[in-house]
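Re: the multi-chain job from yesterday

Posting the exact lines I submitted so nobody has to dig through the queue logs.
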Amino acid sequence: MPLDADRFEAEATALREALLDAQFDLADRSSRAVLILLNGADGAGKGQVLNRLHEWLDPRTIATLAYDINDRCDLRRPPAWRFWCDLPERGRIGIMIGSWYHTMLLHRATGRADEETFHARIAETNRIEDMLVAERVTLLKLWLMLGDNETGGSAINTEAPPGSRNNPLVREWAEIDTKKERNRLVRAARELIQKTADCRTPWHTVRADDPLGRDLAVGRHLLDTLQAAVRWQPPRPGVLPFKPHRVSSTKPVLPTLDLTQTLEKDRYEIELADAQARIFAATQSAAFRNRALIVAFEGNDAAGKGGAIRRLRSALNPVHMRVYPVGAPTDEERARPFLWRFWRHVPLRGHTAIYDRSWYGRVLVERVEGFAAPAVWQRAYGEINDFEAQLTRAGYVLHKFWLAIDQDEQLRRFEARKATPHKRFKITEEDWRNRENWELYAAAVEDMIALTSTEAGPWTLVESNSKRFSRVKILRTLADRLEAEL
Amino acid sequence: MPLDADRFEAEATALREALLDAQFDLADRSSRAVLILLNGADGAGKGQVLNRLHEWLDPRTIATLAYDINDRCDLRRPPAWRFWCDLPERGRIGIMIGSWYHTMLLHRATGRADEETFHARIAETNRIEDMLVAERVTLLKLWLMLGDNETGGSAINTEAPPGSRNNPLVREWAEIDTKKERNRLVRAARELIQKTADCRTPWHTVRADDPLGRDLAVGRHLLDTLQAAVRWQPPRPGVLPFKPHRVSSTKPVLPTLDLTQTLEKDRYEIELADAQARIFAATQSAAFRNRALIVAFEGNDAAGKGGAIRRLRSALNPVHMRVYPVGAPTDEERARPFLWRFWRHVPLRGHTAIYDRSWYGRVLVERVEGFAAPAVWQRAYGEINDFEAQLTRAGYVLHKFWLAIDQDEQLRRFEARKATPHKRFKITEEDWRNRENWELYAAAVEDMIALTSTEAGPWTLVESNSKRFSRVKILRTLADRLEAEL
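And the result, structure tokens for all chains:
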């Protein structure tokens, strides 16, 4: 029986007060953000629920995030990019329409994704959502259910009032037009809701036949979510029993590197120029226009990342390339999951992004220096693999270099930097401190190589005691990789 | 006579040290950013200069910003958007290739812009650059000159080494292919350089025939620029002699408003629904896809901005609409010119952006509360007009509403808010304080209306003692405007 208006008003008034209190608590004293995924049939009232929430809540810390799945400019980056850009910062609430579930379901309904792919996406999505939850984004997943027909009932009538059932504000499923597709969508949605029922953030289904009852139900779910986010306390770091030297059990690879390899000057110049020309040609080619290149540089301090990056830069059209030196995050970055700052700069197709240090900071410096708790950096390997898989699945060529030098060579370079006026800036107290943790860094590198080497996102270990050898190896590896990929 | 390599090395070493010192000073203790506009003929060595600067300077606080003038996704926003997105923050250096001058010159050379338009653009650009300089962005405008042929000499040879004169890294002028266009480009560039020779940031031309000499010349210009940016001191605010009540001399318009106007409930509901349906239809129409709507709401505290925005929101497809409540800037925003936070969220074509308070904060609250010095808010009127002209010239529909209530009505609403639990959040100490400055705000509003009302970006004053009257007037005004524009 539909809710009558008087009872609705009474309940809504009380609910609204509680929601506002919770919203202010979230803004004032929680380190979490709240992201509402608002899904369901067209005509079930997504637009109306949205407007209701904007009526009930303080508009200053709530935002609607909505997407056009066919946006051709968004398609110039991996699909998840648009969602990452909009991720609410701590203390804020985002309401997302047309979330990642929309694409998954649409592809399944139209047959663009087979069942296996669909299941793989659900599994990946569950992992990514677990990551968001761990990174202080509380999720509320709502599915608005129409009784009779999951995908929205009657035909569109543009004469009807905007926002009414036959003229909905949000038209997510306009592309679904055959009965077969409609049935497949209903089945896929049901499966999706079931498959994620036991994960950290289950779906909440809300009956949408009765608009007032629907809005109250949504409001109550949101209240629970906000209060849980406010109650949440960061896990205590606890006393570390010991600094673990390895979490993976592979045979160490760093000791197998032959760091004595060198390259004489004439050959260096010929080979460098050759590799640069190949990289320039590959990245200017028509085949590259729909791909992209992401290169991450990590390495011992003074291993020569800067010099290698300069040689790579000289081989690229500056219009289609950016270099990102990764330093301390800004406050906008700190207020969001750690991968946000990398997602926000994911290059367009046809472009190259070079990272001077990267997202691997979490399992290197943050691990060794204790900036990240063990549980945090240990889960990061999987999170990084998922991140990289999303890039490479979109056709992005991803390559990661570890530049290795030995302790003697590092000492020589530190001393030389101190003595060279225009290199002084390259040597800081921190570098000397890092040097004392050499063994801990080595263990972290071994784990990183063992746990994040993938076919699509390989690590190349670069013997870098000789700068000439190192630069040529890096540029040739990239030239080979690009030619193989294109 | 070209510079010989030994002398270059000697001079470069000293220059590099000085550049690094200046770069660190800029990062550590200057509140200015430095933006280098690197222009000139293809083959004159823009890419090589770029790489040289990246070699000489610390890569952590310098970035290359380069654009593809034909990028179709960038074209979905006003032309200046791409440059604003990338504006370096304080302490940092950006090197821009393909800056706003590139478009101006290309349009002139290909005849897309006539001479009058070209001159108008130069004048506007000078004003915008003055604004950037005032907003703590130091500009260095470099023009690399080839001796023989301004637009680059010989044909492209893709077999030549990347970055050499015949196979340049940067190809800005590939579209210029007739002799007539080439001549027109040379003339336009010469005119541009002359026309801006006497403005705050003149062009520096650099002979590019001799690569080593060219790089040294660029380095020296940069050193001067960095040192000037470091030496710069913010002007002392000084003691205000008085709080000026008006800077414009028009007849006050606020007293002419008939605030007693009301609307009875039945008519309100009919007219509101009618206006909402018209707005929904207009923004869903094919004609709107290449336009965009920007609505700025300003008004007395408690004048009903939030309620009006909610009614407007209900008339829009949430997928193509965002509401931006304007509060305190983030640190990323504070580190850049005040318009940056608005440019960064300029909507795509086909979309609507609603601002709950706006860039007019500079001439309202910042003026009245003294957050901005008189010289700062007084120059803001022109800066805002230029900003809005760039939006409307791109086809954006811009409308600005001032919601006016009288002091008695405001007091009634403040008291009511205190008494209504779910409205308590809307009333703060600051609101009571603002109320005490009623006359100062009124003067600021009169100046704002007088100095920023334009045909393409009109202010509508909204009598808002009656919420119903106010909302209907706003929505009808927008519906009329959209229908007239589309």
